[in-house]
Amino acid sequence: MIFQSDSRRIPHGFPSAVQHAINETMDKSQQRIPTNLRALLILETLANAGRAMTPTELGAEIGLPKPTVHRLCTTLEGEGFLVREPHDGRLRPALRARTLADGLQIASRTEILRRLVLKSVAGKIGETCNLAAPATSGMIYLDRVDTPWPLRFQLPVGTEVPFHCTASGKLFLSTYGNRALESVVGSLDLTPEGPNCATTPDELRRRLDQVREAGYSWDNEEFMAGMIAFAVPIHDRAGRFIAALAFHAPAQRISFEAGRAHVPTLMEGAARMEQLLFSEH
């Protein structure tokens, strides 16, 4: 987003009090850009311009007062994000800004490769596949690829689902040791969701023991009536759980045992994602 400044002032002859009030309003409008966004807008403006710029040009493009832009540019220059051209003093991105841009580009490529794996897994299984990670009070969907079937459960990216009754949530809970798990389970609201949902700590612990033993997790109409799901873990280099690769489907289209037969495909996809995310090369 580009913020345009308005450098117009009230013509000479207006009462000074009126002119002061209107000019003050304009100054406040310029200050509406959040403080923590201003330095990023300077870098973004330079990137979009594709050329070195003076602080005055940057201020005019973004819509910030000259003193503010000069102060921010001095800070960015001192921290190694900007450097001045020796012949005219114009600013261009320096090493830290270029390193930041390169890192973001790599992250974007990784996301593309991750989605290609997710699409491949979804294509092989023929059902909706998703990637979910633990959040504050449940698992949050980071990405998904929908099944082509018209009958499907809609759980869009950004949806947060409970820990205790979902395949990905139970998979995450199963990574806790017994002592820590006691505290976690004791703090959960075991709301009955689907018809087969665990609603007591003892029952939930029993199901988590089964998940640990199997190495993958499942949801047999625990979260929603008529829905099954299976999930496998994705680990970082240290072997820590970071996300779950899962699929879900209507039980009327695929039985629970038929769904279990797709677990090896999920495992292959998770291994591929780990390679993409954490390979040294």
Task: Name the descriptors.
2 domains; 6-stranded antiparallel β-sheet; alpha+beta; Arc Repressor Mutant, subunit A; Beta-Lactamase; 10 helices; 281 residues; single chain; disordered N terminus
Measured on Cα atoms, how large is the radius of gyration?
27 Å
CATH architecture type of the largest domain: 2-Layer Sandwich
Distance between the termini: 36 Å
CATH superfamily of the largest domain: GAF domain
Largest sheet: 6 strands, antiparallel
Going across the biggest sheet, name each strand in turn: 5-4-3-8-7-6
Provide the residue-averaged pLDDT: 83
Q: Which regions are unreliable across 5 or more consecutive residues at pLDDT < 50?
A: 1-30
Number of helices: 10
- Quickly give the structural class: alpha+beta
How many structural domains does the protein architecture include?
2
- N to C succession of SSEs: HHHHEEHEEEHHHEEEHH
The CATH class designation of the largest domain is Alpha Beta
How many E strands? 8
Kindly describe this structure.
This protein is an alpha+beta fold. It folds into 2 domains: 16-93, Orthogonal Bundle (Arc Repressor Mutant, subunit A), CATH 1.10.10; 105-278, 2-Layer Sandwich (Beta-Lactamase), CATH 3.30.450. It has 10 helices and 8 strands. The strands form 2 sheets. It has a 6-stranded antiparallel β-sheet, with helices on both faces. A hairpin with a 5-residue loop joins strand 7 (227-235) and strand 8. The longest helix has 31 residues, at 95-125.
